[in-house]
Design brief:
Helix content is 37%, strand content 25%. By secondary structure, it is an alpha/beta fold. The protein has a single domain, classed as Rossmann fold (3-Layer(aba) Sandwich). Strands 1-2-4-3-5-6-11-12 form an eight-stranded mixed sheet, sandwiched between helices. A two-stranded antiparallel ribbon has the order 7-8. A two-stranded antiparallel sheet has the order 9-10. A hairpin with a 5-residue loop joins strand 9 and strand 10. Helix 2 packs across helix 9 and helix 5 packs across helix 6. The longest helix has 16 residues. 46% of the residues are buried.
Length: 270
């Protein structure tokens, strides 16, 4: 009888391990607690897999369709992912007007430190969309290929520095030499003075090009927020990279989420 129960327990545990797992976790960030979701494939005891950090864009969240589609695709390929809300976004703590690219990089670094030490993680990669792409590129440049295995940038918004220097963000003009305390942009959102001043001095490409590992750029030719020429610039500075231009895709890859996710997942699975 004991042998029977032992066999049944083994069968049940084996069946359970064949299914993936989704976990809600909280991580200390630059401005308070970060709300995050870990999605991982079914793993046998002692088995490890790649972890991919998924970084959303400006005013986005961890539940953006592009990110959830990519998380599902990665799971089907045997990789885990963690997607999280940056400070001032979604369910994470902090005020949106206090958010800057630099404190988002700090958020991402804290998330990296969290997943790096998980027992089932065998290497960390990072994928970022829009402003999250800028953060991903700079994070990888700062940490280096020793810590970040590979990078995927989806419509990386390196234009944000140029916009801040021109004094025009999302069509809203301001004095670039003396920015106001806050600038109202759209849908009730306002960016703070510190966001603008930080953006004006960001070393986006010089920092990103320090990363020597594999990089993949994905951009839509119909992107009216960030011209695809910015991804072409990333392609030139990365020594080991590939560029995929999607004809007709907009900045959010609307209707192209599965295509973009497959390109990204296939690259990360190499």
């Amino acid at each position: 009888m004991k042998k029977f129960f032992a066999v049944m327990m083994f069968v049940l545990l084996s069946a359970f391990s064949a299914f993936g797992e989704t976990l809600n976790v909280t991580i200390d960030g630059s401005k308070g607690k970060l709300s995050a979701v870990i999605q991982k494939p079914g793993l046998k005891q002692g088995e490890k897999c790649r972890m991919v950090m998924l970084l959303h864009g400006f005013t986005g969240s961890k539940n953006d369709k592009l990110l959830t589609t990519l998380a599902d695709t990665l799971e089907s390929c045997g990789a885990a992912s963690i997607r999280f809300d940056f400070n001032g976004h979604g369910q994470s703590e902090g005020a949106f007007t206090d958010m800057t690219v630099l404190n988002e990089i700090e958020d991402a670094r804290k998330v990296f430190e969290y997943v790096r030490d998980l027992r089932y993680v065998d290497g960390v990669s990072v994928a970022g969309h829009s402003q999250g792409g800028v953060v991903a590129g700079m994070l990888a440049g700062e940490l280096g290929a020793e810590d970040i295995h590979s990078v995927v940038l989806l419509a990386p918004a390196a234009v944000l520095r140029d916009d801040a220097l021109r004094g025009n963000v999302f069509g809203v003009a301001f004095d670039a030499g003396n920015p106001p305390e806050s600038v109202k942009i759209f849908d009730g959102y306002s960016i703070g003075r510190e966001y603008i001043l930080t953006a004006q001095t960001l070393q986006i490409f010089p920092t990103a090009e320090k990363f020597t590992g594999p990089a993949c750029l994905i951009h839509g030719t119909a992107d009216r927020i960030v011209p695809y020429t910015y991804s072409e610039h990333y392609r030139r500075i990365y020594r080991n990279s590939e560029l995929h231009l999607l004809p007709g895709a907009d900045h959010g890859f609307t209707g192209f989420e599965k295509i973009a996710a497959k390109i990204a997942a296939d690259f990360l699975a190499k």
